[in-house]
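User: Structure tokens for both sequences below?

Assistant:
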Amino acid sequence: MLPKKFRDWLAQFRNHYITYSNGFFHLPYNGKSPETLVDSLKGLPFVKYSPLTQGISTSTPLMEGGLYYRKLEEGCWLTYSRMRYKANVAFDLFFDEDSVSDCYHLSLNYVDNNTRAYGKLLNGYRVLAKYSWTLFKPRCVDCHLNFKGDDGKFITLFFTEAWLQQNLMSSPQFIDAGLARFVESSSEGFMVWPLAEQDARLESYAYFEKLMNVDGQAQGCDPLQLKASALNLIFAFLSTCSAHDDVMEGVVAVDHDDRGKLQRVENYLSNNLYGKFPGLDFLAEEFDISHNRLKGEFKQLFGKPVYQYYQDRQMQLARAMLKNRDVLVKSVALKLGYQNLSKFSSAFKKVHGVLPSELN
């Protein structure tokens, strides 16, 4: 049962776009082009649209924040969005049945999420890592989940097939990054590259907020500087791709049914961090997925092999537990299934770079 204030508030918009299912408020947006994206969002009944600042803002019981956009040149747009979520919100990307879209989406993402509390609601949809790159092919249908308490920031470049061919396909950096294989492949889906929190390019958020005059403190936007900064963003993405031997490893083309099973595997692991790793055979049987698909597709979806993902989550929990100076390292090790203290310390150092005894 929904809280009464949400039921009363939602009643105003029954004839509009918002729906509610599986614990999420669903908001659709049209992905045919940046123009249709802006039009579909500004058409919602709870947003304010300013053509002067080229921004869309909202403050409701669901979320608070805005999206700002600039057309850099024909075939290429830049958007910056930031949002704080007061409820579970899903953005459903859709396309008109009779429309033709050739627009790619390249995005630098920051999502501070609380998926552990809502893991059972995932149902196979996409939940981003805290920091990541994503590259979507044209007409790639997607649903992006945001959880109550989340904060999100996205710097996104939209570019058409014609712009891609004219500006990127012949670039040595694009070729060296191996992205031509992704563009020319028949693979559907999108590409994801998680980023470490210390990555220098993550400073881009504050820079683009100022550059796009998000808070209205500057006199205006410098079009030339915007174009140069957008190109630098592209080169940063190409650099990330070039650092990997096979760029196609970052492509998420997992079957939707398998994606739901893998999300349930991830949810099970994240909620059962005490004790020993349950094993691949158990997980494959418990969640009705083949051993090989579990190994290959879990890494594709979450960026790490199953055991490494589980161990990293355990060590994150261990660090949080050890912040209490009254807790003994040996006690934490035993709770996490480590009978050998030296093996626990080694696993802890592998993730955090220091031994548990060296924590300040």
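Moving on to the next sequence.
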Amino acid sequence: MTRSFRFIDHTADVAFDLEANSLEELFIASAEAFKESVTDFDCGDTSDAIEIELTGNSKEELLVNFLNEINFYLTTKKWLCCSIDSIKIFVDENYLELSAELSGIKLNSEIELKQEIKSVTYHQMKIEQRNNFYSTRVVFDI
């Protein structure tokens, strides 16, 4: 299991490059980068879990939908995604489908948020596969 993310300088936004050895690991790394973008809080063990199911017409659309769903839970449900317990991505010739179980925690006075992410953008996003690794850049509009 290899995955990583690296923040990069980006004017007025938050951006990071991702690399992983599978599409699922790429999505997990993106969720980790999202969490680190919004808080330094160490979740520890969490028992609060939710399941999500999403679709997209491309890998990029599915990733944007996935991160926007995590952001939706944070901004409207006041629930912070701390980790991805399981994730499966099914690729059909016409669309992609994601099924995941997320662990998290309800926001409380101990959790300080660094910034609000307005949305995940398609700007500079192109998921590529080279030499058994997937990579892309993700930009958050803040």
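User: Anything stand out in the second?

Assistant: The helical segments are 23-38, 59-76.
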